[in-house]
Design brief:
ETFRF1; Complex 1 LYR protein domain-containing protein; elongated; 3 helices; 88 residues; mainly alpha; Complex1_LYR_dom
């Protein structure tokens, strides 16, 4: 694996690990799954395949961010707009 791809893979792993702290099923569950997925693909040598896997990981990262933003939005909406439903 080229050094640039190695750096990208490590950066992706660290970012996903950071995002996994708030995972709904728990950080330990997420960490185990993340480690297993990365270990499963550790023997991949083809740079094109590695780039493909990095793109897939970045997609998962964006999906996690969207999940967290949606959860925060729902909490805020429930907190501030729950009174309007009671008056109707």
């Amino acid at each position: 694996m080229a050094n640039s791809l190695r750096g990208e893979v490590l950066k992706l792993y660290k970012n996903l690990l950071y995002l996994g702290r708030d995972y709904p099923k728990g950080a330990d569950y997420f960490k185990k799954r993340l480690k297993n997925i990365f270990l499963k693909n550790k023997d991949v040598k083809n740079p094109e395949k590695i780039k493909e896997l990095i793109a897939q990981g970045e997609f998962v990262m964006k999906e996690l961010e969207a999940l967290y933003f949606l959860r925060k939005y729902r909490a805020m909406k429930q907190r501030y707009y729950s009174d309007t439903n009671k008056t109707n």
